[in-house]
Amino acid sequence: MPPKVKTDAEKQTVRIAIMDAARELFIHQGVEAVTMRAVAQRVGYSATSLYLYFSDKEQLLRAVVDADVIKLAQALKSTLSISDPQQRFVQFGQHYVQFALTNPNHYRMMMMTQHPPCDPAFSSIEQNNPEQDAYSQLIGVVTSAWHAGVFKPTLTDPALIAQTVWAAMHGLCALQINLADDAWINWRPLESRMQAMLEMCLHGLMKESPHA
Amino acid sequence: MPPKVKTDAEKQTVRIAIMDAARELFIHQGVEAVTMRAVAQRVGYSATSLYLYFSDKEQLLRAVVDADVIKLAQALKSTLSISDPQQRFVQFGQHYVQFALTNPNHYRMMMMTQHPPCDPAFSSIEQNNPEQDAYSQLIGVVTSAWHAGVFKPTLTDPALIAQTVWAAMHGLCALQINLADDAWINWRPLESRMQAMLEMCLHGLMKESPHA
DNA sequence: GTGTTAAGTTAACGATGTTATCTTTATAAA
DNA sequence: TTTATAAAGATAACATCGTTAACTTAACAC
């Protein structure tokens, strides 16, 4: 029974309801639980109606994750106001890891699964807007620390530094998310690994012996 | 037309043929191309016959990947004979990255997708056998370097060192495999990132300024 | 009133993993 | 030699999934 003629705002409301339902399934039961039928049931629609709001499942998932990419940027934003460049750098990294490990399914979706490569032109996220783009935040944090002269003099490319430390932190998160329960590995406590990784990065990049 | 009664060796041959067909699809067209029907057609059987040799798709894939886990250990084995502990450490890391990036689909399967956690008791891989278990190789390499005193004195736990450097290298590989084509990131050349990561690890872990 | 169309639904298609059931044939027992 | 058994495989079929096509219903425009 279609009560007809929805304003754009109402449409947006439905869109968001669908995304919320998908997110709920996604977070608590992983990607494979997100079937169009399950989402539809949760939101009280028929499965095919979702296609009135999203062109396909991929786009629905992408919309869900995009919203949380922005949440990542928001989560990191608070560290940007730290005045000491090195402390800012450290805190930024720690917040990144914390976000990843408290939102493992989203992190997995963002960083650990293959999508069709994302074209910034068609993304809902505004590239280079520090409110939304965590990578540009990282570049900013590293660049300002670089200008402050905290890095070893042999390191001359802030983007390369950023990509290296990102990779290191990502590796920590990715192994934890995927292999933490693997009985093959006698894992050291997560806290120890975080600390060790952070210190390796600092000693490996900073000019003088830093304190994490 | 079943010509009946296969010896164990013949059965094994079929098993391997199935695995080879699956691997072929897997390597060249990714996981999603590996359907039971596609594998069956490639090997000249009906889809349901694969279930006479593998209990389900997951086990088939696992068997394929397990075989290549051993290949990883083989690929790393050559570095174990390097006499200088630090050089051995460096070469081990470089070979690891090289294996990951020349076998991205297998690496993705091994390290970047969620399986049911792997129980060593039921694995076809012999844990702690350096011929088959790359992680135990890593522990060995790090431990011997540690005994040789190449690490900073604050680093007292070889396993923690190993897990940290593994995470760092894994991060490099994982981002490359998943996000190399992402237009969002202005990636530095892979070679530069490898070099930078290696140097960060060395400076971050080694006692005195090392040369990569 | 009468179309028109937006907002939904139901039916259905093709693909997939998987199970149940049938077919065939080589061998073991009579 | 005949016959029962079981191995090796194929066909048919089921449930589930993403997705499309076709149908229904109700609010508005004239």
N/C terminus separation of chain A: 61 Å
The structural class of chain A is: mainly alpha
* Assembly type: homodimer
User: Would you tell me which CATH topology of the largest domain in chain A applies?
Assistant: Tetracycline Repressor, domain 2
CATH architecture of the largest domain in chain A: Orthogonal Bundle
Number of distinct beta strands of chain A:
0
Number of helices of chain A: 8
Taking the sheet with the most strands of chain A, its summary is: none
What percentage of the residues of chain A does DSSP assign to strands (E)?
A: under 5%
Enumerate the spans of chain A where pLDDT stays under 50 for 5 or more consecutive residues.
none
The helix fraction of chain A, in percent, is: 55-70%
How many domain modules of chain A?
Answer: 2
Q: What is the average per-residue confidence, as pLDDT of chain A, rounded to a whole number?
A: 93
Net shape of chain A: globular
Write down the secondary-structure element order of chain A: HHHHHHHH
Give the largest interface pair and sizes.
Answer: A-B, 52 and 52 residues
CATH C-level of the largest domain in chain A: Mainly Alpha
